[in-house]
Write a structure and sequence with these properties.
Oligomer: single chain
Helix content: 25-40%
Bound molecules: 2-phosphoglycolic acid
Distance between the termini: 8 Å
Shape: globular
Number of helices: 9
Order of helices and strands: EHEHEHEHHEHEHEHEH
Length: about 230
């Protein structure tokens, strides 16, 4: 299983030092932990790198040039970043599907595994949005590429509630089917209010792991979740 932590724009240097100092995982060997702090704290994570992979929260859609404030995939790779979250719903508000496809390509071309977030805005919405997000995100890369897709229903993120196992399975099966049709073999995560209290429900889903937000802000809660996964 995979557990990826998206810290978003939370915490500060002191908090991250505390997180890392207490990050002692007894996770089973087959749990891969990916930690995605804000760019400026990546170095703290790199310095103390223990049983986790280094992830970033975003990447530029272009390779190089006059793009003030952006960080390229080759820079992330240089630094030691192995995974990058792309197309999170909190960024999709000001990013087009096409730009997200470019970011996926930049990551793949530079040997970074993208964690592509897809999901419908509203509960019980039809599947057109997800279909479009998946097809576009995969449109610029070879189908042999290593890709993770995180199904994150926007309405569940930060809400404290998760969809039923049947609902998650329906959507993740759709995502797998779409990717398979294009020849991809992907891993699928679920994200949106993931918490240990929902694990018995989540374990009924056919998933490769989880993308967690709020849960990552407390190292003990996060580690407890990792141990139970
Ligand atoms: P949440 O966030 O776990 O706090 O709902 C998940 C995400 O946005 O990736």
């Amino acid at each position: 299983m995979i557990v990826a932590a998206n810290f978003k724009m939370n915490l500060n240097l002191k908090d991250y030092k505390h997180f890392l100092k207490n990050f002692n995982t007894n996770a089973s060997k087959d749990t891969e932990i990916i930690l995605c702090p804000p760019f400026v704290y990546l170095n703290e994570f790199k310095k103390l790198k223990k049983d986790f992979y280094l992830g970033a929260q975003d990447v530029s859609e272009v390779a190089v040039g006059r793009h003030t404030g952006q960080v390229s995939a080759s820079m992330l790779k240089d630094f030691g970043v192995e995974f990058v979250i792309v197309g999170h719903s909190e960024r999709r508000g000001f990013e087009l599907d096409e730009q997200i496809a470019n970011k996926v390509k930049q990551a793949v071309d530079n040997g970074i595994i993208p964690i592509v977030c897809v999901g419908e805005n509203v509960k019980n919405q039809d599947d057109a949005q997800i279909i479009n997000q998946v097809n576009t995100a995969l449109s610029k890369i070879e189908n042999s590429s290593n890709i993770i897709i995180a199904y994150e229903p926007v309405w569940a993120i930060g809400s404290g509630e998760i969809p039923s196992a049947a609902y998650i399975n329906k959507k993740t099966n759709l995502i797998k089917k779409l990717a398979k049709k294009l020849g991809f073999k992907i891993k699928v995560l679920y994200g949106g209010s993931v918490d240990a209290k929902y694990l018995s429900q989540l374990k009924k889903c056919s998933l490769d792991g989880y993308l967690v937000g709020g849960l990552s802000l407390d190292v003990n809660k996060f580690l407890n979740f990792v141990r139970l996964v």
